[in-house]
Design goal:
Blueprint lengths: L3 H18 L1 H13 L1 E3 L17 E5 L3 H10 L4 E6 L16 H8 L3 H4 L2 H14 L8 E9 L16 E8 L25 H21 L4 E4 L11 H12 L8 E5 L8 H9 L5
Parallel strand pairs: 2-7, 3-5, 3-6, 6-7
Antiparallel strand pairs: 1-4, 4-5
Length: about 280
C-alpha cells in the first residue's frame, strides 16, 4: 500500500529541486516574486469597466484546479487560479505531505517559493498568526506567471518542457470552521472553534468572494478558475458557499470570458460538486 503522505513529500521535494536548479525555473520564480503583490483587506482595487459584450461562459467541472486551467492557458488565455490558502503557513502542509488543494498546487508549480518570501511572511502569514483568529480576513496575494511543471493528478508527474504552462495564482484563505482550528498545516489559528450561523457565514464570505472577482478582473484575467472554497479541510458548508458564489458572480459575468468552478471529487464524495452544479444551473 502506498504511503500517500510520504509520496507527496517526495514529489514536492522533486518539484523544489527543479525550481532551484533549472535556469528557466529559477528565472520564473524571480519574475513571479518581483511581480507578486499583497493586497490588504481594506485596500481599494481599481476595477476596469466591463470588457466583454456578452456574459462569461460558466462551467462546473469535476476537475482539479490546474487541470481545469490547462486548456485555457495553452490556448493563450490569461488564467487566474484561486488558491484556497492556509492563512498561517505558505503552502499549507505541503512540506508535510498534506493533500488539500493548496498543497496540490504547490506540488505541481513554482508557487511555493513565491509565497514563502520574507515580504509575504511579514504582510500575510505573520499577521494572521498573531491574530489567532480562525475566521482570518480578506487579505490576498496575487502571484503572476506561475509555472505549472507537473501534471495535476493524485501523484503529479513532470511535464515535458514544451508542455509546461503559466497561470496567475490568487491566494486567499477561507474561514477555518474546524472544531480544532489549529494544526500543523494551519498553526496559530486559535484554540476555539468559530461558531457561525449560515447567515453570519454568508455575510462574511460574500466580502471575501467579491475580493476574488475584483482582484482577478483588476489584473486582466480572461479565465477565472474557482471552486469549493473552504468546503474541504476548513469545513465550510458547500450549500452556503455555492450560493454566495452564485449571488456575487452575477455582477461579474461581463468581466471574464470563462468562469469555471473546478470541484474535484471522488465518485463517492460528490456533495460539493452537486451543490455547485445546482447553484450554477441557471448560467450553464
Amino acid at each position: 500500500m502506498i504511503n500517500r503522505r510520504a509520496k507527496n513529500m517526495e514529489i514536492f521535494l522533486d518539484t523544489k529541486d527543479r525550481y532551484t536548479t533549472e535556469p528557466e525555473l529559477i528565472e520564473a520564480v524571480k519574475t513571479s516574486r518581483e511581480g507578486q503583490r499583497f493586497i490588504g483587506a481594506s485596500e481599494e482595487v481599481s476595477v476596469p469597466d466591463a470588457f466583454y459584450g456578452s456574459a462569461a461562459k460558466v462551467v462546473v467541472s469535476s476537475k482539479r484546479s490546474l487541470e481545469a486551467a490547462m486548456p485555457y492557458a495553452k490556448a493563450g488565455k490569461k488564467v487566474c487560479v484561486h488558491n484556497f490558502a492556509s492563512a498561517t503557513n505558505p503552502g499549507g502542509g505541503v512540506v508535510r505531505g498534506a493533500s488539500a488543494q493548496e498543497e496540490c498546487i504547490c506540488r505541481c508549480t513554482t508557487l511555493y517559493p513565491c509565497l514563502d518570501s520574507r515580504e509575504m511572511w511579514q504582510r500575510f502569514y505573520d499577521p494572521h498568526r498573531k491574530a489567532h483568529d480562525p475566521l482570518y480576513n480578506d487579505d490576498c496575494i496575487y502571484t503572476p506567471g506561475v509555472y505549472v511543471i507537473k501534471s495535476d493528478i493524485s501523484f503529479p508527474e513532470p511535464l515535458a518542457e514544451q508542455d509546461r504552462y503559466k497561470v496567475d495564482i490568487l491566494t486567499c484563505a477561507a474561514p477555518n470552521l474546524r472544531e480544532e482550528p489549529s494544526n500543523l498545516m494551519n498553526p496559530f489559528a486559535g484554540d476555539k472553534p468559530a461558531k457561525l450561523t449560515d447567515g453570519q457565514l454568508e455575510t462574511l464570505i460574500t466580502s471575501r468572494i467579491k475580493r476574488l472577482f475584483e482582484i482577478a478582473a483588476a489584473n486582466g484575467s480572461e479565465v477565472l478558475i474557482l471552486g469549493a472554497f473552504g468546503c474541504g479541510a476548513f469545513m465550510n458548508p458547500p450549500k452556503v458557499v455555492a450560493k454566495v458564489f452564485h449571488d456575487v458572480m452575477k455582477d461579474w459575468l461581463d468581466r471574464f470570458e470563462v468562469i469555471e468552478y473546478a470541484v474535484y471529487h471522488r465518485p463517492d464524495e460528490a456533495a460539493n460538486y452537486n451543490e455547485f452544479a445546482n447553484a450554477m444551473k441557471e448560467f450553464i
